[in-house]
Design goal:
- The structure is a single chain.
- The chain is mainly alpha-helical.
- It is about 65% helix and about 5% strand.
- The protein is built from 4 helices and 2 strands, in the order αβααβα.
- A two-stranded antiparallel ribbon has the order 1-2.
- α1 runs antiparallel to α4.
- It starts with a helix and ends with a helix.
Length: about 120
């Protein structure tokens, strides 16, 4: 029912929501000994799927977008702290603020698309 841009925006919103959850979990575990920070990826998988479908020929961008999901990874960085925890609060707070703003922009884009559809139906 929706075009690829709405589907892409929905996928980005899902990714950004998960990114916020992972970041909040990292912040909550800042004092947990041996806790390793996590991060979420999405763009690399989307790019590889789009490249695959472009090389295969045809315009199957929708299948590439639908088949892409985010992945949660654990940071393997060595900790500079004695307790083995590698959470950097400065980085986590910037990531949280950034993903929150991006999430709000994605939601605004989706709302704008629905408003355009409502206007077209009238």
């Amino acid at each position: 029912m929706f075009n690829n841009s709405v589907l892409m925006t929905q996928k980005m919103a899902d990714y950004l929501w998960q990114k916020q959850q992972v970041t909040l979990n990292n912040i909550a575990n800042v004092s947990t000994p041996d806790y390793k920070a996590q991060y979420v990826t999405f763009q690399d998988e989307l790019k590889s799927k789009l490249d695959f479908y472009n090389q295969a020929g045809g315009s199957k961008k929708r299948e590439a977008i639908e088949g892409t999901s985010y992945r949660v990874h654990t940071k393997a960085d060595e900790s500079s702290r004695l307790d083995g925890n590698n959470v950097n609060m400065d980085v986590e707070q910037v990531e949280l603020a950034s993903s929150y703003i991006q999430f709000q922009m994605a939601i605004n884009d989706i709302n704008s698309e629905f408003n355009r559809l409502r206007s077209a139906m009238k």
